[in-house]
Amino acid sequence: MSEETTDASTAAAPKPHPGRWRPHAVRIAAGAIAVLLLGLLGFAIAVQVHANSRSDNLANLREDDLIGILDDQNNRAERLRQEIADLENTLRRLQDSGDRSAAARQQALQEEQALGVLLGTVPATGQGVVVTITDPKHKLAAEDLLAVVEELRGAGAEAIQFATVRVSTDTAFTEVDGSVAVDSTTLRPPYQILAIGDRTTLDTALNIPGGVGATVRAAGGSLEVSEQLKITISRTRSLPTPKYASPSGH
Amino acid sequence: MIAAAALIAGIIVGLILRPTVPTWLEPYLPIAVVAALDAVFGGVRARLDGVFDAKVFVVSFISNVLVAALIVYLGDKLGVGSQLSTAVVVVLGIRIFGNAAAIRRRVFNA
User: B52 lies in which domain range?
Assistant: First the structure.
């Protein structure tokens, strides 16, 4: 043992090695294995980088991470389900209110139409009567013609057109220069009146004994009533705006 | 040198072949690669210091890889898998940095 340690210069010389392998062969083998391992390392680096570049990396994770991800996704799904429920509620509420407002609008439209017909702002059509009044002696006064209109109203006429004027809430019969004027439109006999309503009732009302029919005939004229299945009143008037009256808002 | 050539050759073969990693190997491959890198850096440092021994390198390479994989496997079984894996990566990173600093000192004398 002292031979090997006395001479320092021989420290670099290969020592006799116990066992079957010579040190030079060992070094060559180790070198070869080292090179092989380096190649294997390069290979593994390339493979791992490629495996990691895939977008779905769930397969690489371990159980703890996967459980954490599962919890996160469950919470997220729960939150989204809640949001869906809230949005569905909002949608239902909006649809209901939309339906209601559509119904309200529908109703308002119908009321507008009805009011228009009754006030005379829109043309109207329906069954009714055509009344022709002749006055050869020019003895009919404004109040006589007004009585005809009142009789028609009383019998349920919903729209009345007197000659060329649509009769409304503020229609007035006056006398101008010996002739009758309706709402400042002077009229000359014979007068034609269109009235929409129940034609039988209107006809009966005009011809009751002692009614307007009798009045006209007493003045020397005639009153003809023709029942029609379809009468079209095309004259309209502008919407009257109240000057003194206003809604009481109750 | 042959070593660098072998490394680059391995990378090229890996890029060409693009094999899929087997499922049982997937959690351990990254750790094994980092452990092997630690051994390689140690080998480079030894080479620059003039004390490189191929046998030491091979043994340290293989043992690093095996120990790292063993620790990760044990951690998974114990239920502290991600923590132990993090610890192994941290320690290996520290060693790699130490070897890299020594290499830098040797190469640039700075």
Answer: 24-108
CA distances from B98 to A238, B61, B86, B94 (A): 99, 17, 18, 6
Q: Which domain holds residue A154?
A: 123-233
How far apart, in whole angstroms, are the C-alpha atoms of residue A138 and residue A144? Answer: 12
Cα dihedral A7, A10, A14, A18 in deg (nearest 10): 0
- Residue A157 falls inside a structural domain: yes
pLDDT tens digits, one per residue of A147-196: 889 999 999 999 999 888 898 888 888 888 878 888 888 888 888 999 99
What is the torsion angle, in degrees rounded to the nearest 10, for the CA atoms of residue A61, residue A65, residue A71 and residue A73?
A: -40
Structural domain count, chain B:
1
Q: Which residues of chain A neighbour B85 with C-beta distances below 8 Å?
A: 62
What is the per-residue pLDDT for A241? Answer: 81
- Rounded Cα distance, A121 and A130, in Å: 20
Residue B64 belongs to some domain of the structure:
yes
- Partner residue facing A45 (CB), from B14, B58, B81: B14
Beta carbons within 10 angstroms of residue A151's beta carbon: 21
pLDDT tens-digit profile of B2-33?
A: 888 899 999 999 989 888 888 888 888 999 99
Q: From chain B, which residues contact A within 8 Å (Cβ)? A: 2-3, 6-15, 18-21, 23, 26-27, 29-30, 32-33, 36-37, 40, 43, 53-55, 57-58, 61-62, 76, 79, 81-82, 85
* Residue A41, burial from CB neighbour count under 10 angstroms (0-12, 13-18, 19+): buried
Closest CA to B69 of B36, B96, B44, B43: B36
Burial class (CB in 10 A: 0-12, 13-18, 19+), B71: middle
Which class for A153: exposed (0-12), middle (13-18), buried (19 or more C-beta within 10 A)? middle
Which pair of structure tokens corresponds to residue A114?
Answer: 């009805």
